[in-house]
Design brief:
The protein is 42% helix and 19% strand. The protein is α/β, with parallel strands linked by helices. α1 packs across α10.
């Protein structure tokens, strides 16, 4: 690879929602998409072990791919490992954090929900965002242990049952007097792929806030002074668990990626 790529990292294939926005803003860049499916889901990991795993993995990724920029397209990882990665590697990092600030700025009812993984909900970082940017709002933190895996299955063609989806998202919908939740922050990069299904089962319409566009804007700012010329060929998707199955290969191929184990 003659040009330094943009490295996009996630525990699964949900970060493809971020890759899609990155490509829309920077179509003349080369990308390497890393799927840490050997460790999926990150919510099951003890924090110290997950931190050590990701930092160690990046030692190899930086050595092998020499990226110009790394995007951590995962809320759980970002809220845990970004400080350690920035301290260890001389490389710009863009993280994925719950879009609580824009939600607080946009809400009309003052009732916001954050739909995340249990790991993201547990993080002091997430609660700090609420304290810093949404003091005047009522914020419901909802940690779903199942939705990330359901999104992975959905993207491979296994559609979730509507009643199951409703049971996962129903805690996001809060009524207080005449007010109702009007914004749900999608605090996991897997969840945007389920938004169409969410809308069908939601008790009432809300804005589903996807952070992918903001992530891509920040990446574009950081890459503004880096020359680009897109070489021919597909970008690469690397699966840490080894050779992916056919549905996964077909899926990433649809995003312009060749799958490698």
């Amino acid at each position: 690879m003659s040009e330094k790529p943009v490295l996009v990292f996630d525990s699964g294939i949900g970060g493809l929602s971020v890759l899609r926005e990155l490509r829309a803003r920077m179509p003349d860049r080369r990308y390497v998409y890393v799927v840490d499916d050997a460790a999926f889901p990150y919510g099951d990991w003890e924090e110290a072990a997950l931190l050590a795993r990701i930092v160690d993995m990046f030692s190899g990724l930086v050595r092998d791919h020499d990226p110009a920029l790394a995007v951590i397209a995962c809320n759980t990882a970002s809220t845990l490992v970004l400080p350690a990665l920035r301290a260890r590697f001389d490389l710009p990092f863009v993280g994925t954090v719950p879009a609580i600030k824009p939600a607080a700025e946009q809400t009309r009812s003052g009732l916001i929900s954050v739909l995340a993984t249990p790991g993201t909900v547990r993080r002091d970082y997430t609660r700090g965002l609420v304290e810093s940017f949404a003091r005047d709002c009522e914020v419901q933190l909802v940690g779903s242990p199942r939705l990330a895996a359901m999104a992975e299955a959905h993207m491979r063609g296994d559609r979730a049952r509507p009643e199951t989806l409703l049971s996962e998202i129903s805690p996001c919908f809060v009524e207080s007097g005449t007010r109702k939740t009007d914004i749900v922050v999608l605090a996991c990069t897997h969840y945007p792929f389920l938004v169409g299904a969410f809308r069908k089962v939601a008790p009432w319409p809300v804005d589903w806030l996807d952070p992918a566009e903001a992530i891509a804007r920040q990446a574009e700012r950081l890459m503004a002074d880096t020359p680009s010329s897109l070489p021919e060929g597909f970008d690469r998707a690397i699966f840490t668990a080894g050779h992916p199955d056919y549905p996964a290969r077909r899926l990433v191929h649809g995003f312009g990626l060749t799958a490698e184990g």
